[in-house]
Design a protein that fits this description.
The chain is mostly helical and 138 residues long. The chain is built from 5 helices and 2 strands, in the order H-H-H-H-E-E-H. The chain folds into 2 domains: 2-32; 56-131, no CATH class. It has a two-stranded antiparallel ribbon with strand order 1-2.
């Protein structure tokens, strides 16, 4: 999440560089968010239900099909069900989650898996979104 925020800040800075008039303090700019990302709501965090675990619906409908498409070439015919996959994540900590670290080819506990997704790819962000408590919205 920190990387996403820093990326958006960098994008806003670069967008302002080419402007004919520089941005003034307090001036709003519009930024197009990548697909799958939502603008934070104006409600206070205490108004929202507390998410304490990864979402089964998101895994079943978004993430599992992606993993089956990319991972079953080397792994089992079917990528594990939700309860199995959940064991490979540390909620809200992608850099401590085996699923994200191995899929992006980063070293994890002394093991380095072949890179399946680039760390900044949409696929990797799908994994990060799930680990961070992402849900399927209607």
């Amino acid at each position: 999440m920190k990387k996403i925020i820093l990326s958006l800040l960098a994008l806003m800075t670069v967008a302002a560089c080419g402007a004919r008039t520089p941005l003034r303090r307090g001036q709003e700019i519009s930024v197009q968010l990548p697909a799958g990302f939502q603008k934070p709501s104006d409600t206070k965090p205490t108004d929202q239900p507390q998410v304490t675990d990864v979402d089964k619906t998101y895994y079943d409908t978004v993430l599992q099909p992606l993993l089956e498409k990319k991972c079953t070439m080397c792994h089992d015919d079917k990528f594990g069900p939700f309860d199995s996959a959940k064991k490979f994540v540390v909620f809200k900590k992608p850099d401590e989650s085996k699923m994200y670290m191995t899929a992006t080819g980063k070293e994890f506990s002394g093991f380095k898996h072949r890179q399946v997704f680039k760390p900044d790819s949409a696929e990797a962000m799908t994994i990060v979104t799930w680990i961070n408590g992402g849900k399927v919205t209607q």
